[in-house]
What does this fold into?
Amino acid sequence: MSLIVQKYGGTSVGTVERIQAVAERAGKAVQEGHQLVVVVSAMSGETDRLLNLAKAIQNPPAPRELDAMLSTGEQVTIGLLAMALQARGIDAVSFTGGQIPITTDSAYNKARIVDIDATRVRQELERGKVAVVAGFQGIDAGGSITTLGRGGSDTTAVALAAALKADECQIYTDVDGVYTTDPRIVPEARRLDRITYEEMLEMASLGAKVLQIRSVEFASKYQVTLRVLSSFMDGPGTLITTEENIMEAALISGVTLNRDEAKLTIVGVPDRPGIASHILGPVADANIEVDMIVQNSGADGSADFTFTVHRNDYERALGICQATSAELKARKVEGDRKIVKVSIVGVGMRSHAGIASRMFRALAAEGVNLQMISTSEIKISVVVDEKYGELAVRILHSEFGLAGASTAA
Ligand code: ASP
Ligand code: MG
It folds into this structure.
């Protein structure tokens, strides 16, 4: 007998019929003899509906009061699912975050879990009940309801799995696993059997939105074995685990496309110590996150300084650069919103030289110009013109044999 935490997202509990289907699936795990905790999101669209209601009254809404009402979406689904289980003759009991309790800090709307007291849940499991837990919410030291940020139910599930030392945390969603790339761009994209936490973190932060990033960080920190599966079809899903559990790592696990970036260049800044901090200081002060940075020194004692930011921050960053440019008597500021970032990710890169040059050669052969490059231990990213983004993904997916090769098992 093992202890399993299952998490069902909004689409999986979006209608009464789907809640019945979740009860059916959960019932199967109980019949197989597992102890079961089920974490649920609000019904699909519900959190957005509540958010819009709040904004119609007060914009921006008061953070504490917003959490008090946003958390009700999940409270509805725990009640409904517990009923659906009971109606099937399965003993089930619902818990809000505060009832567990899942204690968080008081950063409303983006609270972090501080502690989970698993005693009550464990007692109910010992009594043979299924614990149905509201995702996305907790309670702070003062007793106020908090929420964990959009997509936070994933984190609730992983944190609970860690606190209960569960054997596996299964995330049921509307896709049947993690793919080598976006199947809408490359129809031959393949579901991965296994992937490491690190790779998943890189893929998630690069735009593969299967799991909330924080939940993967949590899983990695506490070594919770995660599995992403479809709630609409049967299949093994994708296991997210430690590198040791993956016998033979593939060279490259995935290719990602991030369309959220924009590029800024200050042309002709004086090439002397302190320039980078002079330029990026005010950007950081404005709370704008910088991703890639490149500085090119010219022969004339001046340099061009280029960096990328989230597209939503582009206008603000441009204004800041113009001010800095005037201060530094730079030649001009250039901005480009029509760029994308294409990356390859894989722990196999660590033990293989020449991956970068192979990537660059494949792109060059098809005439894709690289504007910026950055590398980490398990990732290589390039910035290219927006119009080449999907082409670059297809080139790399085929260059590294992601469609055909078998997954690391
Ligand atoms: N219901 C929340 C949201 O829509 C939390 C979640 O679904 O994970 O963001
Ligand atoms: Mg989600």
